[in-house]
């Protein structure tokens, strides 16, 4: 084994790593360790295969350790490790921006690059504020998010986000933020395949916020086309169009957070295309490199770019950026990933598989304790009854069983299992995912 390889190494001590979004003690008492990955699988340090039903963390859309991506990263690492993105550039940064812009609808034709979905969210909110300031609308400072929304963990993201555990311990957050209501209603939407019929009218709540705050104070609205982290809640039919109309009516910028829905998850490069709606900005991350190197970004419409990039040649256009914006390794990984998506038709593949996936996943309806099932694109979520000792405990037990007994990874959100396999998933692997979840539901009730 090479001195650099950790594939077979087990750590001696798990104590030092302060794990994110994890119960550290419980994990360290009974770890779920992964040390290798290929295509649809992870492998534990002992070499046990684990079916990846979640594309890592909604990111490995092309599958894991695909040869062209690995080679592109290796080549780039040998050629140039880093180039400053402020006042200097490197060719792959421009190439990757052009490729991403070409995938986006309408005139979303400029790309700001960063390193994560959280940075993308905060960057989009800052660009919205600065856009209004620079176009003579400096009173437009209010940011509108949505209940049950997730936009990462920066202060901007948690402020517009709508998940109380992510907010409640972190002080007063950004001032001047308000929220739209979420779009989930189990009574009216349970067991919908794709976008639920009920719920477009929830967009009209923006009228109430305009009445309360006045449009002249509102900079932007940010929503996920499918709320991922609170259990995969697809937008109701017509909801996003309605939001677009209202934002146009009141001069408010509309931002889609496509950190999960971008790069094929809903069968299109961006969900904006699926819904026939062009937002003013799209945030992305994860699938842009299939998770191989951290990267995120913000697509902006031409009028936004033009507002900053004026002809009178300032020394700097936008006072925002990251040391690792357009990192050469990330750009190389992204170019190879985008090639793979195109060559293998993976977005179209997800679209074609959606009805088959939906039928397979909805077969879980007969399992014990199931309260709702949602599917859209290559995403599935199943809600089930909580245990008396607290919300999320039954799902945690299920996640442990799935890993140790069934050899599969899922995401949990409260008492929901959410799955989002790599877009290379085979039909038999879809069946395997459903079977493993089904057996687990039998076991935890
Ligand atoms: C919709 C959405 N926005 C933002 C983020 C944050 O991305 P990151 O964890 O890369 O900062 C996530 C992460 O899951 C997400 O689902």
From TrEMBL:
<keyword id="KW-0032">Aminotransferase</keyword>
<keyword id="KW-0808">Transferase</keyword>
<dbReference type="GO" id="GO:0016223">
    <property type="term" value="F:beta-alanine:pyruvate transaminase activity"/>
</dbReference>
<dbReference type="InterPro" id="IPR015421">
    <property type="entry name" value="PyrdxlP-dep_Trfase_major"/>
</dbReference>
<dbReference type="InterPro" id="IPR049704">
    <property type="entry name" value="Aminotrans_3_PPA_site"/>
</dbReference>
<dbReference type="InterPro" id="IPR015422">
    <property type="entry name" value="PyrdxlP-dep_Trfase_small"/>
</dbReference>
<dbReference type="InterPro" id="IPR005814">
    <property type="entry name" value="Aminotrans_3"/>
</dbReference>
<comment type="similarity">
    <text>Belongs to the class-III pyridoxal-phosphate-dependent aminotransferase family.</text>
</comment>
<protein>
    <submittedName>
        <fullName>Beta-alanine--pyruvate transaminase</fullName>
        <ecNumber>2.6.1.18</ecNumber>
    </submittedName>
</protein>
<keyword id="KW-0663">Pyridoxal phosphate</keyword>
<dbReference type="Pfam" id="PF00202">
    <property type="entry name" value="Aminotran_3"/>
</dbReference>
<dbReference type="InterPro" id="IPR015424">
    <property type="entry name" value="PyrdxlP-dep_Trfase"/>
</dbReference>
């Amino acid at each position: 084994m090479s001195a650099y390889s950790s594939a077979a190494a087990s750590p001696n001590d798990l104590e030092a790593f302060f794990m994110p979004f994890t119960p550290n003690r419980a994990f360290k008492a009974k770890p779920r360790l992964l040390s290798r990955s290929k295509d649809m699988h992870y492998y534990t340090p002992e070499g046990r295969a684990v079916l990846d039903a979640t594309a890592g963390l909604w990111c490995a859309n092309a599958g894991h350790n695909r040869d062209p991506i690995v080679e592109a990263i290796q080549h780039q690492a040998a050629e140039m490790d880093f180039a400053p993105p402020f006042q200097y550039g490197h060719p792959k940064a421009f190439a990757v921006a052009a490729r991403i812009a070409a995938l986006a609808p309408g005139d979303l034709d400029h790309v700001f690059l960063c390193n994560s979905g959280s940075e993308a969210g905060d960057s989009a909110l800052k660009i919205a504020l600065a856009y209004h300031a620079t176009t003579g609308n400096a009173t437009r400072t209010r940011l509108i998010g949505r209940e049950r929304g997730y936009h990462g963990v920066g202060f901007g993201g948690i402020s517009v986000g709508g998940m109380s555990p992510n907010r409640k311990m972190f002080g007063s957050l950004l001032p001047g933020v308000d929220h739209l209501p979420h779009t989930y209603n189990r009574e009216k939407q349970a067991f919908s395949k794709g976008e639920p019929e009920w719920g477009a009218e929830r967009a009209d709540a923006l009228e109430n916020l305009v009445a309360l705050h006045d449009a002249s104070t509102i900079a932007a609205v940010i929503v996920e086309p499918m709320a991922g982290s609170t259990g995969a809640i697809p937008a109701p039919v017509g909801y996003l169009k309605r939001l677009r109309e209202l934002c146009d009516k009141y001069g408010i910028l509309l931002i889609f957070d496509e950190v999960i829905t971008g790069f094929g998850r809903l069968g299109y490069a961006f969900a904006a295309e699926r819904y026939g709606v062009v937002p003013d900005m799209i945030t992305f991350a994860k699938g842009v490199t299939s998770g191989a190197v951290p990267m995120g970004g913000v697509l902006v419409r031409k009028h936004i770019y033009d507002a900053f990039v004026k002809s009178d040649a300032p020394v700097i256009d936008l006072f925002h950026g990251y040391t690792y914006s357009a990192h050469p390794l990330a750009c190389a990984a992204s170019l190879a990933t985008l090639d793979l998506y195109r060559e293998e038709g993976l977005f179209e593949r997800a679209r074609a598989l959606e009805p088959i996936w939906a039928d397979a996943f909805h077969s879980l309806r007969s399992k014990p304790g199931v309260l709702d099932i949602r599917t859209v694109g290559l995403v599935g979520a199943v809600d089930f009854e909580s245990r008396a000792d607290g919300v999320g405990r039954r799902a945690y037990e299920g996640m442990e069983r799935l890993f140790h007994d069934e050899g599969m990874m899922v995401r949990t959100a409260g008492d929901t299992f959410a799955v989002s396999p790599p877009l290379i998933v085979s039909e038999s692997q879809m069946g395997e995912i459903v079977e493993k979840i089904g057996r687990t539901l039998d076991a935890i009730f």
